[in-house]
Sequence to fold (277 residues):
Amino acid sequence: MKILVTGANGYIGRHVVKALLDKGAEVIACDIVCNDVDARAECRSLNLFELPEGNVWEQLGSPDVCLHMAWRNGFVHNAPTQMGDVSAHYNFMTAMIDGGLKQLAVMGTMHEVGYWEGAIDENTPCNPISMYGIAKDALRRAMIQYTDQKGCILQWLRAYYILGDDRKNNSIFCKLLNAADDGKKTFPFTTGKNKYDFITVDELAHLISAVVMQNEINGIINVCKGEPISLAERVEQFIRDNGLDIKLEYGAFPDRPYDSPCEYGDATKINKILKNI
Fold:
């Protein structure tokens, strides 16, 4: 298979490119720069917000699948760019479909759903509460309609709480490493009771690559483990795994009222895909 990956140089994209290559796919890695992308991939430098004239799908190698992972300010959930960029993403993906693309996979997020208690599946109602979630949800709805009209397969990949490669993200795990580097012995924390669906970026890359290299199971697919774990338990494990000389200061920050006490993905569809590999 020939798979185009946009955002290939990003936090998740670099790992997905490697996972696809390891599975035998031909990968076209697309980003503004590709300096951290696996050298086995064919790199294309492109600003998706400034599309060239003509058939974009053909110009990007006529891929069998486009895995659209590009997104600006993904860690800044209320950045003013979130809603402003939606049209550019829509224009790129519709241009690819109009050019001849038959299978589109797009990186989604749990933040499309907003506040929810329990398992999230493809029928869970979405009421996003951040500009990032609102933008992703709007794009998802638009692409469901467009792909239905054009007969293009759509795989909407909904990710949850990602860790790993922690120097390159903006999570609590990155902040813990920075605090330890600064010689701090305590780290201000909440109660840590909230439960989330944690996954390492390499595990996530494996799941994403498995999804896009098949087309029997489509629609909204949770790329997750489906196993809720308390934030405190996962952070304490991270401290142990990394040998950090730092202790959590529980209760220093109040739990945020808009954070669900327990939110995780229903892994039924992704487990079916993995069984068929």
